[in-house]
Amino acid sequence: MTDTLTPVLTDNWDAERAWTLASYEEHGGYAALDTAFAMAPDDVINAVKESGLRGRGGAGFPTGMKWGFIPQDNPKPKYLVVNADESEPGTCKDTPLMLASPHTLVEGVIISSYAIRANTAFIYVRGEILHVIRRLQRAVQEAYLAGHLGKNIHGSGFDLDLIVHAGAGAYICGEETALLEGLEGRRGQPRLRPPFPAVAGLYASPTVINNVESIASVPSIIANGAAWFAGMGTEKSNGYGIFSLSGHVTNPGQYEAPLGITLRELIDLAGGMREGHELKFWTPGGSSTPLLTPEHLDVPLDFESVGAAGSMLGTRALQLFDETTCVVRAVLRWTEFYKHESCGKCTPCREGTWWLTQTLAKLEKGEGSESDLDLLLDQCDNILGRSFCALGDGATSPISSSIQHFRDEYLAHLSHGGCPFDPAASTAFAPAGAHA
Amino acid sequence: MSTTNSGLDTKTWDELREIAARYPEARSGLLPMLHLVQSVEGRITPEGIEACAEVLGISAAEVNGVATFYTMYKRKPVGDYHVGVCTNTLCAVMGGDLIFERLKDHLDVGNDETTEDGKVTLEHIECNAACDYAPVMMVNWEFMDNQTPESAVQVVDDLRAGNEVHSTRGPRICTWREAERVLAGFPDDRADEGPAAGGPSLVGLRIAREQGWTAGGTYDRSAGDKGESK
Predict the structure, then answer these.
(1) Residue A304 and residue A237 in contact, taking contact as beta carbons nearer than 8 Å
(2) What is the rounded distance in angstroms from the CA atom of residue B52 to the CA atom of residue A383?
(3) Smallest CA–CA distance from B196 into chain A, residue
(4) Mutate which of A130, A255, A315, A322 to test chain B, going by most B C-beta atoms within 10 A?
(5) Any CB–CB contact under 8 A between A141 and chain B?
(6) Looking at beta carbons, which residues of chain A come within 8 Å of B167?
(7) Which residues form the NADH-ubiquinone oxidoreductase 51kDa subunit iron-sulphur binding domain (chain A) (predicted)?
(8) Do A270 and B224 touch (CB under 8 A)?
(9) Which of B24, B131, B230 lies nearest to residue A90, judging by beta carbons?
(10) What residue ranges define each of the domains in chain A, with the CATH number in brackets?
(11) Residues of chain A below pLDDT 50
């Protein structure tokens, strides 16, 4: 049996000055680089394919397959872009990773760039995490000075430049083609596909865009072998991942485990829900993944099982809310977020998120009528699948799932003439035993 | 550094060109260039927009279009300290809404407004990727974790009094303009300040250490059973 928790990416976070090159190398860092350089680039791609690594940014697309889509006969430069625009509500795994061990990401960038034959790579990091950006800047500087970046790395003949690029506040730039627009100095609005970035991405050149955690997982796969990685997890969801618990749980935080662990197991590890309270609803992978309830506590947290339960694994951003939380308030706030972050490019999302917010706000205040629930679902129908990118789809997830699971609570707002919950009872600083 | 009404100083012009030169195509430098404009001007100014446009050989309207798209770029002067309270769902529920209300009241400002002494600009912000430390407040984009209304008031009082304030998971707080300069790609000397990780970042790792759980493989520092079967 695989152990319950499997620290790999988190394994050096408790080391003294873990963010420094000296500490990272002391713990075996940059050794996988030479292993990779001893392999042909295509063999590195094959190793990642065989490992079964799937994108850790939410969509779960096989990473090695993505790399294989790069047309190597295209004469244009190839680019690797790391998506470090971690902004999906609830998602908080890449930020601590880059803060504690930026070199894990840098080593992953070098190996991945070697595999896809990119000589320039970028880390697009959201601008609102200043200290993470400092640590990335320092790590890149250290890596250059140590000969891990620049010309003829480790005598391999491979050259790589790595640029840390700070964003400027836009959730939409987590969408990979919007991210490319931002990186090209434009408004972050998604591009029509095809062409896909693998063919025409950054500067209309072949480009791989991967999440931080995906790229950071690559050194461990090269060091330990594809079979080691594939030996963890479930049949189609291989390997380990960082599970981020937040909200009304005794010990919120980061738990790195094989895919397929359940929320019940994770909550047990986290010391249970906060004392005297019970789980009411949760997101498996950020606010764009439909809400689940206590009846889903034993769903294996892998791509297939969470999908079968009617949601998505997403980014393993497990936001846990107990019975003091008003689901209507929670959903309204997320909806306001999507409205604020809609880039304005397509009508269903730009207009639809405003309509959703208006209808929901009315319900939350206890105004309107039961038929507004049908109106909301109708509005969702007009957004889901009709938007230019996944932001619009994501905006409908909390609404449709909350109406499915908590229809009565919406109605209670109408009969109560407003929200029946006390928001003070749900806070982290509420007196013990406070109840709504 | 001095600026004049007629535009930006020579050093800033040179640094704008330096940013553009980092990239295979110069226009990629626009986002960090606008961060640099903010570090010098305290906001996005018409002069800053004109300078970016000239360096990149694009129209001021194009630069303006970009500057108005991203929420970190500000049209109004920002105080020495930008205080952002997360009021996205998780933090709001955990207390962010109450913290934001208390700060508005305490500072006598509304959302996106600056105190009369020019010290603090208050804004409610979206999820800042620290949900396991909720409720979260950011000061000049440094983490202030696990806040209460009382602790948040203490932070802004200290900032206004000129007392040294440390991020709960990072360095001494610098000014907003200094922070914008780092975002423009000109590092300061604070990377080594603060811990590698805060408590919640390490909870899973600590349990694994206690239990002797590992992923096997050479990446583990501690010896343990190799995971073999699924």
Answers:
(1) yes
(2) 37
(3) A100
(4) A130
(5) yes
(6) 131
(7) 328-373
(8) no
(9) B131
(10) 21-230 (3.40.50.11540), 242-321 (3.10.20.600), 327-420 (1.20.1440.230)
(11) none
Distance between CA atoms of residues B102 and B154, nearest Å: 11
Distance in Å, alpha carbon of A378 to nearest chain B alpha carbon: 24
- Chain A residues whose CB is inside 8 A of the B129 CB are 86-87, 91-92, 94-95, 126, 129
Q: How far is CA A327 from CA A391, A397, A412, A434, B125, in A?
A: 21, 13, 11, 18, 21
pLDDT digits (tens, 9 = 90+) for B178-215: 999 999 999 999 999 999 999 999 999 999 999 999 99
- Contact assignment for B227 to A231 by CB distance below 8 Å: yes
φ and ψ of A279, to 5 deg: -65, 135
Residue A379 tokens, joined? 């509005």
d(CA A418, CA A375): 19
Phi, psi of A272 (to 5 degrees): 85, 175
For residue range A397-426, list pLDDT tens digits in order: 999 999 999 999 999 999 999 999 999 999
Question: Distance (Å, rounded) from C-alpha B205 to C-alpha B227?
Answer: 17
Nearest by CB to residue A1, choosing from B69, B206, B229, is B229
For residue B56, list chain A residues with Cβ-Cβ distance below 8 A: 185
Domains and CATH numbers, chain B: 10-67 (1.10.10), 81-174 (3.40.30.10)
Edge-to-edge, what's the strand order for the sheet holding B81-86?
A: B113-114, B120-125, B81-86, B137-139, B142-144
